[in-house]
Structures are given as C-alpha cells and as structure tokens.
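Table S2 (continued). Query chain:
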Amino acid sequence: MTWWEDVHGDPCRECGTSWNVGVEQAVDDVARVPWEFALVLPLAGPPTTGWSGPEYVVHVADTLRSWSERLVAALAGDPAVPAGHDADELAEARRYSSFGPGAALWAVRRAAEDWCDVVREAQARGAVVRHPAHGVLSVRDVALRNRHGALHHVWDVRRLGDR
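Corresponding output:
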C-alpha cells in the first residue's frame, strides 16, 4: 500500500516524516508524541488560519482513539468497522476550541498509551482492518498512517511557534 506516499511524498514533503519504518518504530514515535506536544505547545502562537495548538492536540487524540477502536474491533472479530469521522465536523461537535493545553495534553497522552497497547496486540495477533475506503489494512498500514498524522501535527503546532 503506497497511497500515503503518493499523497504526501516519501519523506512527507511538508513535515519530513519517512514512511520507511516498522511497527515498533511507529509505536515508539507515537508514544513520544504527547511529550513532543508538551514541548511545542507553550511556544505556539495564535493561528492565522485553521486550528490552534490545543485543537491539533485534541484532533490527534481523537484520531488515535478512533483507530484504536478499529483495531479493537478487528481483534474482537466484530463484523463492522467503527465509522470514521470528518475531522472538521468532529472538531465542531466536540468544541475543540474550548480545550486548553492541560486537557488537550491529557487526552493525547491517554489516547497514545491506549493506541500503543492495541497496536502491539494487533501486530502480535496478525489483525487486519477492513476499511470501507482503503480496503484491507495491515497493522503496519494503520501504524504508519497514524504515526505520520501525529508527527505531522506536531510539526503543524511547531510552525505556529515559528510565526
């Protein structure tokens, strides 16, 4: 599966993230993401367009949680895959703009810990996710996609501080 490389480049044309890693490296990188956000969030200025720093952090937490639920469903043998979400609609429904740094960092820390646990279990058990748009995804496919999203958004928040 290379659609992400086609869309983002390898490495990603914006954030520089490489796709050439294994599942364990992806897990290690996602485990570090909450701490990276904790370092860059205090430096983030207000956005000129788009989301603020805490909004990016909550988005990453929700995305990791959503993919964790998909992997848990695959492990449980559930016939249906939990539905995805439109990021902007979820941001509005959950009122991302009302999150401060403390709650945002707590959310991403919890989501990353759970995601790392379920990815390790799914990898050990050879799980696959049947995604309605992307077909059958291996744990590596999921891990690399989620890793890139999380690292890319750390980069987005870091850029808010560079203005």
